Write the structure tokens for this entry.
Amino acid sequence: MRVRRGRSGTAGALARGAGARRGLTVAAVALTALLGATGTGLAVPPPPPNPSDSAIDSAKGDANAKAGEVGRLTNQLAQAEQKLSALQDDVELKQEQAMKALVDLQTAQDEAAQARNDAKSARQEADAAAGAIEKAREDAKKFAAASFEQGSTIGSISAYLTSESPKDLLARAQLLDAIGGSRLNAMDRLQQAQTEKANKDSAARKAVELAQQKQDAADRAKGAADAAQSAAVAAQQAQAAQNTQLEANKASVEQQLYAAQAKVNGLQGQRQRYQDWLAQKQREDEERARQAALRAAAANNDDNGGGSGGSPSPAAGSSIEAVIARALSKVGMPYAWGGGNGSGPTRGIRDGGVADSYGDYRKIGFDCSGLMIYAFAGVQGLPHYSGYQYTSGRRVPLSQMRRGDMLFWGNSGNIHHVALYLGNGQMVEAPESGSYVRVVPVRYGGIMPYATRLIG
């Protein structure tokens, strides 16, 4: 009887509170029924806000618009990065051309210096030859003057007068004649040498002129190469500044996208909480009815123990967070080409090339598609080929990618890599032989225009 009075007192208190807050009437009744059956239990709380469909749709529209803008900026940035890479290649080419012009200029300067040295030597030799021939001419003039005055070669009279015999006289005459002839031959040789040296001097001057022309041409070429290099660097710097601005714009719009997505998530969260409240209220109503049935059965001495009223847990690994958790649990695991299945890492296989050179067939780990097989094992079985994985689910535009989607890379439509998107510009991947499973920023170069969604 005391228990019954306790229930009555509790019901009275709840009834008085219901006069102030009519929204708790159902919860109060449910609590009364639960306390009457078990002595414990919780009433359903007041209903949370329930945003309208139009408010949710408007927030989604804003988020989709921001996602489209992010996608557009992403494509622009990818094109700008490609252009920047091409400009960088052009800068390197212009640098090499400038280096060639510098080497050519140095060579031309060395040749010009050598030509000037050769010309200087030629002039010195020519000057020396000219001095020698001039001395020979002076000697010849003196010899000719003396001969004219004496009527014979100079010194002939004294030579004859001092002769001791006709034989000695003849010998001295032959000697004087030989001396005169030698002088004339020496003059001829000196004259020839002078001519040769003059020719060399002329050739040296021409060589100097040619070397100077080459140096002038090399100077002009270097100036043109330096100007081209400066223009290439300026273009590269301008493109880099444009890329920086694009990145800043993209980051700004991404923040707006995150804010819009947060708003959508907030409204959807409110809707979900409201639906959870409705479900909880329904469960409370069902529990009240069940408890009433148990009391009726007990009154009739027919206690069957009742049921739990619970619902089965969802399948393990079927949520986005479970998929991501499985993938992240393997960060640091070695890359192994052909490795990985739904149960975990496996030994890699031979490819007859790069993977073999890294010894992948001896390693236990994952390749890119093997990691996806493991991550999504609780959702669906995936083939061990990224190209088939690309078409294994619903494809959504890259601008609308979300946490738990698969991202792909390829050339001309041929897929060669897959990764799992984590949100906030991050992804987890098994990248290549010699590396490990890792978390990195999303790479947009070569990325496919669609993400593949298996959940949601």
